[in-house]
Amino acid sequence: MNSVSPSAVQYMVSGGAHDDKPSAQSRHHNGHGPVPDGIREGSGEPDEVDRLKAKLMSAWNNVKYGWTVKSKTTFNKTSPLFLLGQSYVFNSEDEVERFRQVFVSCVWLTYRREFPQLEGSSLTTDCGWGCMLRSGQMLLAQGLLQHLLPPDWRWSDCHPLSDVDFEVLKPRSPSRPAGMSLPSFSSSWTSPIPQRDLSSGSGESHRRTPEQCSAASHDPQVEALHRKVVSLFGDHPSAPFGVHQLVELGKESGKRAGDWYGPSVVAHMLRKAVARTAEFHNLAVYVAQDCTVYKGDVMRLCESPLTERSESGGTGWKSVIILVPVRLGGESLNPSYIECVKNILKLKCCIGIIGGKPKHSLFFIGFQDEQLLYLDPHYCQPVVDVTQGNFSLESFHCNSPRKMNFSRMDPSCTIGFYAQTKKDFELLCSAVSEALSSSKEKYPIFTFVEGRGQNYGLEGQSGGSMDGPANIFSCNRMSRNNKRGSTDEFVLL
């Protein structure tokens, strides 16, 4: 049975809703339409009329984001496709199979309906407003997979791709024509790997053979970690990275359930969520300020105190997820930055980009030629009770890869990186700096500098109030003359 396929995720009546500029009523909300005031947090409980409005809106969104139109994504058989730092050329079934295993193993988080009511509102779904939260969840999930699981882990139950077209040059079956829809593949993986727990990273840096990959995928302990990662994003109040917890964190920056969240605000919410989760005492999240990664801040954040080292038996260095909110142009993407974005997506240390197209958040994980490869959260699915030990993983993995042209990319986005060790962080700084230098613009997208930022103490990492949105307009000088205020900078998505 195939896993859930969102197809092209082209929704009923969505064309006009996502292409028009937001009205004054919805400008500070989400880009998908206004939410009635009665379903927002207020001084008292929403009355019955407001509850009815919420139910009607939820029903409409379930239809709007639950129906799909079938269309196929075509992949070039000669140009390399880059996915999470790996290159694929679809000139054989083996290469297509290798791509399939990696893509379907990515955690896919989408709109959900019928989850427990969000505190202070009547909302039991995030349809129509939670797409950036879902994109942020997928970015964090990718970082956690790299942090906890073996480097070449693949989901053993991943399903055949659907709604895709590959032209395979060397088909295994003589009866199969060279141009064809992608066939179903099966995996044959088998051998054990050392036990891991949530407080330790993967600990492996060498490339594994297919036989070893087989082993990692079928190891019950590794699959239990995979299931654990997914459960952390469950749609119930106790999940540390679920919508309920993220909405609570959003309140610290003036956001409420039903509001729309920008990529910079979500970056800070993810940082706070990880800092508050005791299970990840050896993982830190750093959010760059003013498009600058201060190495001194990262070093101070990741170097554990001696007391923590002795108690945990650790190495004295926390793994780190680095999130960099940026703006790649003014009202639209500056084409000069496209080559730079490509070079960043080629890096193994890059865990993806949360952004999208105007008023439509997506999670970018790769590219081929002039098209970005992405996972789309705009697909409404029933809630899954992840507190059950044997909950189904099927709806948390997508088997329908989708692409869009770089020219449609909104300039506001947040880029994610992961470094497991201090050495990895040093290599990350070098590799990313080289990728950034490829820009045709005089000023890079962001920079690495020695020393520490003036407003980035450890207090901001472990507690205190939510940081305000980064001033992403300082990332490139061409945007400084833009007349829109900083409070308006995320409306485009």
Q: Would you report the number of β strands? A: 16
Task: Tell the overall outline.
Answer: globular
Low-confidence stretches: 1-45, 169-216, 457-474, 476-493
Judged by helices, strands and strand pairing, the structural class is: alpha/beta
What is the beta-strand fraction? 15-25%
The description of the largest β-sheet is: 9 strands, mixed
Radius of gyration computed on alpha carbons: 22 Å
Intertermini distance: 35 Å
Helix-strand pattern: HHEEEHEHEEHHHHEEHHEHEEEEEEHEH
- Helix coverage percent: 25-40%
Number of helices: 13
List the helices and strands and how they pair.
Layout: H1 14-19, H2 48-64, E1 73-75, E2 81-83, E3 86-88, H3 93-105, E4 112-113, H4 131-148, E5 164-167, E6 179-181, H5 210-218, H6 220-231, H7 243-250, H8 263-275, E7 283-287, E8 292-294, H9 295-302, H10 306-312, E9 319-327, H11 338-345, E10 350-357, E11 360-368, E12 371-375, E13 381-382, E14 402-405, E15 412-419, H12 422-436, E16 447-449, H13 459-462
Parallel strand pairs: 1-5, 4-13, 7-9, 8-16
Antiparallel strand pairs: 2-3, 2-11, 5-6, 9-15, 10-11, 10-15, 11-12, 12-14
Helix pairs in contact: 4-6, 4-8, 7-8
